[in-house]
Amino acid sequence: MTITMRNACLNRERIINAVRMEIVGPSAINENAVPLKVIGNIELEKEAAYKKYYWINCGVKEEVLQYELPARRYSAGMLYPLNTPVAEIVMDDVIIESIDREQEGVNRLKQKNYSAEEASEEKAYMNNERLPSSLGLTCHISNETQNLKVIFNAGHYKSQSINIQGRGKRKWWLRESMVAEVNVDMKELKKSYVSSIKLIPKNFKGEHIHKLDLELNLQYREIKGNQLVTVTVTNRTKSLKKEGSQADELMTFQSEITLEIEGIGEFKSYPKYYQRNLPMTEDEANDELLYRNKINYAFGHGCSTSWDQRTDIVKEVKTSFIPTYETTSMTPDVEIFEKGEWKKINIRMVDLANVKTFKEVKQLLLPLIIGYADWIQKQYDELPLIDKSLRNVAKRNLLLCKDSLERMKRGLEHLENEKVRQAFILANQAILLQQVNGKKTRIPRVQDFEITYDILIGETVLTLDKLQNSSNSWRAFQIAFFLMSLDSIVNDDSIEREVVDLIWFPTGGGKTEAYLAVASFGMFYRRLLNPRDVGVDVIMRYTLRLLTADQFQRSARLICAMEYLRNETVFNLGEEPFSIGMWVGSSTSPNQHKVALEKLRGMKQGGKDSTFIVSKCPWCGSTLGKVKGAGKQSVVLGFKNKKNELVTYCPDKECHFHKEIPVYFVDESIYEKCPTFLIGTVDKFVQLAWNPKARTLFGIDEYGNQRVTPPNLIIQDELHLISGPLGTLAGLFETVIEELCTKIVNGKRIKPKIISATATIKEFETQARCLFGRTQARLFPSPGLEIDDSFFAKVAVDAENRLMPGREYVGIFTSNVGLMMSEVQVFSSILQEANRLPQDEKDPYWTLLAFYNSLRELGAGINLCTMDIPTYMRAIQSREGYPENRFIREPLELTSRMQSDEIAATIDHLKVELKNENKKNVLDVCLASNIIEVGVDIDRLSVMAIVGQPKTTAQYIQVSGRVGRRWAERPGVIFTLYSNRNSRDKSHFEHFNEYHQRLYAQVETTSVTPFSEESLSRGLSAVIIAFLRQRFGKKISREPDSMEYMNIFKTMEFQNFLRCLVERVTLIDEEQVPVFKKNFEDFHTLMCGNYFTIWKVEDEGQGMMFVSGDPIAQKNSPKSIGVINSLRSVDATSLGKISLDVTNRKEEEKVELDWGDIF
């Protein structure tokens, strides 16, 4: 399905306008409307009353409200009479008797309390709050400005009696446009500082609307030689409670203030931090540098603001109740100046996959390096133009760019080495094969014991000989990162091995391929050096199940490509297959063969489970799991019982992986097979304290010997999610993971390389230090001098140098209804308008993805979508005279409370595109929680609603990044629904443009404190136990024998680990060193006490540890300690502290440690 960008942009604007007309008004006068004659008495036949009307006001078509009071019809943009209580309007019993049943339903909805909690909030709100009677804005005006024109536009509704045959008199409302203008002499305002002026609103006839008493207020301040002006309009009309519905005539609707500067002068940027000489951190100074050209001209009071974003000289600013801001789309395309013209760099994967000599590689990659060097020099040439207060941070940024350049050069030099070049060629081949194979799902059908497919394997599996004309190319930043990482992978002595490299690129930019390329290279290189050095080489970790499962599918395609090449290449890559393992909790995948085989039997016997975590062959795309057989029978394909173990295979006999797919997702298989590439959740690594079999993942045998090289590379995607309590305990546990991954070469300790990735991060050096204990971290691409150009990413423009469309954010802040009613109105408008788009252009905006900050709110949203929203949609259709109403099916949810296969099924459902014949199969609404922050990459989605400002800006960016990913064809739109009960939401709304201009700069700093007292008391015992049980021999892995422990304690290996722990505490928080020593001494005393015969508390034997938070185990085993089994939640009453029965023993029984000897 191809949709032109122009039409998609027009359709997006239609969706936005539909919401604007529903919330603020006035509604459109469409082709269905007919004129209403308002001269004399108005009488209508019963049938005529159902039509949509407008009236002519001085030659202008104006709105007629037929079924609702204006204050009920609209939810924002009104100015109520001063001091109008919320209850006076919201709980008004006056309802226009409707001749339309759907409209009566809407009237009831707008009086409805949606939940006990919202009802209590509503009550407090109504008792203590007044409805808005004013709006305004503050702006910065150049000092030479002499005159400021203030224009107040609004709609005023006057009642009109209509006599309907057989129904009697009804009251309709006629909209009347009005305007008031005031010219402000800035010299006079400067003298008085404040000014109040009575506004004279007039209609098109020039008549004064006497019922309204409006006041214009101005306040003047001077900052840095420019003028700061606050302009507000207040409705001071006196409200008469007895007037009932006549109160609507005392209000203004669609209220808007416009400020214009005619002649000399202009609006100026609101003063920035560096311009006000305010103290700044280095991170803040960097943001000021990068965003210095993002200009904020105004912010609102009780509203938001807008101005023309396309001009450098702003002469007009406005208030807005539905603000919009379109972010710029960033392109990874890079152009270099070569032979007198600009050329786009296009580095095809197949070209790098076919090179034979270093000269060929250099010829392909050197232009990128030269282009980057030229760009850096141009940035240096611009340094004198940078404000002096920002010049130091600008120089620092460029030094980091030069550092990246030098690393790229070193990487290129490494390719002179034959084995390095071979691994590089193989990695390019593997990534190319991964990109083209296994993506299309092939549906099998079983009949008469034969399997046939809807797509032949030859149409989906492409080998290298068929890809010689492939257009698949590296994005410049991907191949640049690949190059600059080579030294840290191949050179054990490289100083870059200690550096945490952080790939920082906008959501959907291709970060995954960048680090998968490095991972693939490392795995190939290790085999080329020693074909028998087989074991886990790469550990990739995530925090969310959804992300882990999604990346497993993608990474499995890479591993299958690598295994295919191992069999086909002339290079010696050993006899053991490349393989991948998914190491996660039992809620996602079975941890034992016994459980896995029981699930397989259940699937075969008609159970509800349809598949395992691997739902299709990563190589050819064949569906795995339960598939339809002949008649109503189902068969299970792709999984089999082989010697009491679950084995995954491709059911297609022609597939390269028909015998077995090298993927493992049962813990027992993972410990036995030691997959080359291990993917797991951060949580799972706590099992190192509980299961000594996990030692095989680090190349350690049962006797504690290093059988093969430990993992060389650790990848931590979505680094921003490793924060708070999770990050704190993860940082503590990272000490033992790093130690188990550290190899000894010629007596030198070589730590694993760490790569991380995120689209949102703040103070990443601090986070890298606290999480990984590394003193250096590097962001790539380094940002340079401004956010819109880092060489590797720049603002996308068309052939005429015009900005390409980006995601458009729309703010919704209602005045007289709660957040849930806002949902009803906004969702209904979006869904109904999407139905009115041209049939072949509906798909981008057909499926509404809604994000909620809590499961409670999401549950309420499900109820709205099944009951209230359909009612409201029918009312819109009836009111506007649309030929058909859209029927929405039951919404699906995407939350953490779902099973993994349910999540996968929902994601597959979201991918189904709308076509003429399949409307019933396409999802209408999907309601999601924070599980969609990462890992949901469905590029057909282009419309989203975010209900309530998310807790963090990082979450806001990640969530909104789920739509509009195919921006060149179907740009996205995000509606943010703010709560009028929440002051934080109101502030975000009033500063809407400013906030979205500097969205990435608003990201909050993440907090990680791995050696806090709480963290040490919770997690240190687990860390020490994990090291003991994984690193040393059989005896200590099976039981906490005191004599064995004391022997191990004296070893150089244990002493080195203890020394590393103290050094890390010193690096991160030196004041916590005594706390750490105290916690370790308590553990040491416990281990030396000869109290325990087994590790885990069980029915037999004296167990040392039980799962923290288990009150029964704690009561029955008072001398045992609680040890964490999860990094996410630990019972506050059982935090893994050493038992008081032990720590409170007599002083002489404690084992004293001489820390001086250790160091």
UniProtKB/TrEMBL annotation:
Pfam families reported in the protein's UniProt record: Helicase_C
Domain spans labelled Helicase C-terminal: 829-1017
Organism of origin: Bacillus wiedmannii
Matches recorded under SMART domains: HELICc (SM00490)
Superkingdom assignment: Bacteria
Annotated protein name in UniProt: Helicase-related protein
Swiss-Prot/TrEMBL GO biological process terms: interstrand cross-link repair; nucleotide-excision repair
Keywords: ATP-binding, Helicase, Hydrolase, Nucleotide-binding
Gene3D superfamilies per UniProt: P-loop containing nucleotide triphosphate hydrolases
Keyword Electron transport included in the entry's annotation: no
One annotated GO molecular function: 3'-5' DNA helicase activity
Annotated InterPro entries: Helicase_C-like, P-loop_NTPase
